[in-house]
Amino acid sequence: MLTLLRCRCSSRLFYSTLRPATLDVCGTSYPTDTLTNVPASIISKIPLRLHTQPSHPLANLRSLIESHYPDFSHLSSFSPLVTPFKNFDELSFPLDHPGRSATDSYYINKDLMLRTHTSAHEVEVFRAGHEKWLLTADVYRRDEIDASHYPVFHQVEGAKLFDATPSAMDALREENAVLEKRLEAENIVIEDVPHVSGTNPVQEGHEREHAELVTKNLKGELNRLILGLFGGREGQGEEPLRVRWIEAYFPFTSPSFEVEVFFRGKWLEILGCGVVRQATLDTAGVQNKIGWAFGLGLERIAMILYSIPDIRLFWSTDPRFLSQFKEGEIATFKPYSKYPSCFKDVSFWLPQQGGLHENDFCDLVRDVAGDLVEDVKKIDAFVHPKTGKSSLCYRVNYRSMDRSLSNEETNDIHKAVVSRLTNEFGVEIR
Question: Which Pfam families does this UniProt record tie to the protein (predicted)?
């Protein structure tokens, strides 16, 4: 499979002479190979662990979520370096899943990568004997540059297992009745879908009744969590909180669901969840159990709750940002400044022997300019009718969150972007 990936991944492969022999990650050196694609700007983020920094909005949100599950194990110390097998195969990802590609994921080498989701640790956590747990961690995905996307973000994964026995299912049925009664007394309207259906099936080997009971428990627990996060917040008024469940597909759960909340006039996707794949539990050596799991992105929810307009702000060390947040509180962020944009375009011909994935370009810009880039947009693409050469044009919006950028400074940064673009990808600037 890795051989196939090398044909699809970053065009950096055509310029392997620029690749260092080793990568230093948190004091340890790892050999590189043709799959290596982690830039220094990403490696520098690994030690920061924003979700553990006191009073940081992500840490505050994490604590709020954990407070809804006081009897769960609360985990947050796993290294982000995992094997591709752990990140994908243990969770039943198909071999042709796009997430395996080096255009989507960061690889240290063919045997080691940066996790793309907290689910990468499901098997080891279950294997360690945890049956009720929350795991918070930083995750890494190659992505576009704009106000809501960043290559490093943070997830909370939660899971709960039940004995697959008649007595345990009887107890679960009673627990579900209590959850349902509590929610009926709350100011919440839930648009539900069937727990199991032909398009969202029970897994082979699972009893339908068990799957339905577990799914009902999952829905009750998450409706309660969402109410705690969003209910009664500023902008909600006295209107009931509206939540809707939607059938979904994930490689590691079935049946699977996405959950949306109507908040401040918009439907917002909040999380994904479902009944844990039996193959995952089998791999972990867990016998005669059935359970649920969910995963949510902290940045997405924090941006909504705190009214934070740009995802880059989470990485700011500016006291004007950090001083606005206190442990245990959700307060509306007050913008302290809006500095002017500086747009720079770059047009180029692609080399005949290789392409350029948009994530390659975004990684390069980010590696040069860091968080001085607000967004990157492809504004033109065409193929010359005579030569057959392909051309691309990108517009880079440079804007600091903390200060005004001079045109001279921006020009120097952009020149460095163009220089690396020609050196690393062999493009011809137009």
Answer: FDX-ACB, tRNA-synt_2d
**β 73-75/132-140 pair status:** parallel
Q: Which residues are within 8 A (CB) of 417 and not within 5 positions of it... i.e. 6 or more apart?
A: 346, 364, 365, 368, 369, 396
CB of 401 closer than 8 Å to CB of 310: yes
| Residue 204: CB atoms within 10 Å | 7
CB 224 within 8 A of CB 182: yes
CA distance 23 to 40: 9
Rounded to an integer, what distance in angstroms lies between the CA atom of residue 56 and that of residue 202? 40
> Cis omega before residue 255 (within 30°)?
yes
Three-state helix/strand/coil letters over 26-50: CCEEEECCCCCCCCHHHHCCCCCCH
Task: State the Cα–Cα distance between residues 260 and 191, nearest whole angstrom.
Answer: 10
Token pair of 249 as six digits: 């597909």
* Burial (0-12, 13-18, 19+ Cβ within 10 Å), 416: middle
Pairing of strands 132-140, 152-163: antiparallel
Query: In angstroms, rounded to a whole number, what is the distance separating the alpha carbons of residues 429 and 411?
Result: 16
Query: Model-level pTM?
Result: 0.91
DSSP string, 144-163: --BTTB-SEEEEEEEEEEEE
**pLDDT tens, residue by residue, 243-301:** 999 999 999 999 999 999 999 889 999 999 999 999 999 999 999 999 999 999 999 99
Cβ neighbours of residue 154 under 8 Å, at least 6 residues apart? 50, 51, 58, 62, 136, 137, 138, 139, 297, 298, 299
Longest dimension (CA), the chain: 75
3-class state of residue 247 by DSSP? strand
In angstroms, the CA 423 to CA 430 distance is 15
